[in-house]
Design brief:
This protein has 469 residues and is of the alpha/beta class. It has helices at residues 65-78, 98-111, 139-164, 172-184, 196-202, 205-211, 262-276, 322-336, 350-356, 368-380, 413-425, 457-468, and strands at residues 7-11, 20-24, 49-52, 55-59, 87-91, 128-132, 189-194, 219-225, 231-236, 238-242, 282-292, 304-306, 312-314, 341-346, 360-364, 384-387, 405-406, 430-434, 440-441, 451-452. Strands 7, 8, 9, 10, 11, 14, 15, 16 and 18 form a nine-stranded mixed sheet that branches.
Length: 469
């Protein structure tokens, strides 16, 4: 780790002896043809890759940014195998702009991603792409676009790496110390890891309760970047494995719970990307980490847990552990960090998979402006979000008769979970991002491959860039 991605650069000349890729669009202007390339049999369908001796044609469909992202991913997958070239020149069409370059590079960088724990990966892959433009005056703009896209792809890839790591390796200590080691190598980024003793002294009852059933104790990671500008605080759920606790999950699909810290991974990767891009902003990342296990010391339904800051929660389902650890972190952020914007990211509720499917994240916030900012940031980096309601008629269900709050009240699960978290965000501008659906995939589509998708990291980086400008 980290997984190596395809390198991309922009140039104005092709290289002698290097294979070329010619872009072909649908419609009457199908493909530019070229030496030795017969376009008569091509459809120009997005991702259609055809080899012609020392050249390829690549379909880009209608030529939208989404088409170019999918085409870039398809090209890298096609340039895999024993005869895969080390590098190719991609001949850009005259209508290519910065947005299309960002999309193409994002797809190309991520489309060939493959996570492998042991053994050699015998498959040869193309190592680099050179995007060739005939417009010498546009090279600098396209290069800037390509660099940004590659930085976003790197953040996505790191999130995938962290989430895909098996949980016999990835416990709370491993996740936090690995993040801290990476952060140490990035100028301007600092990391502090707190252990269970500190958590107990500070009163992080939610994190301690969730982690109490595991022999591998919880941790709390705080990443800090910048000293000036608006202060953004990102909080990511860091459950390194989730059995459901005493409210144990069904066996089918439990192996996927190694990715239940995908929100925490997105926060870690976003902080690293923001620091590497040297954005003029202040950002803090908080990742409460625990392993939700079953043992004699597990927390129980019916328990009352005291969170950081003193608020209490009546536990009704130990499989609703994500909101327990996020509550502590949100309360810590409000009291100690005074954020201008507080955003939490989590694979939180199965209800969101039912509501929005597996490719769209849910946005909960009382602020129209913040909702628009998140959705807009996602759209610019090819991550799809949909605003969900914080229905007032369900707010009363969050209150408990024996504690301040009830952890898992009846009603629409994604909404009541967000209403619970809102109690700990206080009056700070806040958004809750539920990525239970798009954080994992079982099949290939666009730049996504099976396993952890890395969803959310790019949106956080883009949101930080929006606030920094």
């Amino acid at each position: 780790m980290p997984t190596k991605l395809v390198d991309v650069e922009v140039a104005t000349t092709t290289r002698r002896g290097v294979p070329a890729v010619v872009l072909a669009a649908t419609g009457p202007e199908l493909g530019p043809g070229g030496d030795g390339i017969d376009v008569s049999a091509l459809t120009g369908k997005t991702g259609e890759t055809v080899r012609h001796d020392r050249a390829w044609t690549l379909g880009v469909g209608a030529g939208t940014p989404a088409d170019h992202r999918a085409a870039g991913a398809a090209l890298v997958r096609a340039l895999t195998g024993d005869d895969a070239p080390k590098s190719v020149d991609v001949l850009l069409t005259p209508d290519f702009d910065a947005e299309k370059v960002r999309a193409f590079v994002l797809g190309a960088a991520l489309g060939g991603y493959r996570f492998k724990v042991t053994g050699e990966d015998a498959r040869k892959r193309v190592g680099s792409l050179r995007l060739v433009t005939g417009d010498t005056g546009f090279e600098e703009v396209l290069t800037s676009a390509a660099l940004k896209a590659h930085a976003l792809a790197t953040a996505t890839s790191l999130t995938r790496d962290l989430a895909n790591t098996p949980s016999n390796v990835k416990d709370p200590r491993w996740l936090t110390t690995t993040a801290a080691k990476i952060a140490e190598k990035v100028d301007g980024l600092s990391a502090v890891v707190r252990d269970e003793k500190w958590l107990r002294q500070q009163g992080f009852g939610g994190v301690l309760a969730v982690g109490g059933g595991s022999a591998r104790p919880p941790r709390f990671l705080e990443l800090t970047y910048g000293t000036t500008g608006p202060h953004l605080v990102f909080v990511g759920k860091g459950i390194t494995f989730d059995t459901g606790g005493i409210s144990v999950k069904p066996a089918d699909g439990m192996h996927l719970m190694r990715t239940d810290m995908a929100g925490g991974g997105a926060v870690i990767a976003a902080l690293i990307a923001v620091a590497r891009r040297k954005l003029p902003i202040r950002v803090t990342g908080l990742v409460p980490c625990a392993e939700n296990h079953v043992s004699g010391s597990s927390y129980r339904p019916g328990d009352v847990v005291r969170h950081y800051g003193g608020a209490t929660t009546e536990v009704t389902n130990t499989d609703a552990e994500g909101r327990m650890v996020l509550a502590d972190a949100l309360a810590y952020a409000v009291k100690n960090l005074k954020p201008d914007l507080l955003v939490d990211v989590a694979t939180l509720t199965g209800a969101m998979k039912v509501s929005l499917g597996l490719r769209t994240g849910g946005v909960f916030t009382p602020s129209d402006a913040i909702a628009a900012q998140v959705v807009g940031a996602g759209a610019r980096v090819a991550e799809q979000w949909w605003r969900m309601p914080l229905l007032e008629e369900h707010a009363e269900a969050v209150h408990s008769e024996i504690a301040d709050y009830r952890q898992c009240p009846p009603g629409p699960g994604g909404i009541t979970a967000a209403l619970f978290l809102q109690k700990f965000a206080g009056d700070v501008p806040w958004a809750h991002l539920d990525i239970a659906g798009p954080a994992r995939s079982e099949k290939v589509y666009d730049e996504v491959v099976p396993g952890a998708t890395g969803f959310g990291a790019r949106t956080l980086v883009e949101l930080a860039e929006h606030y920094s400008s």
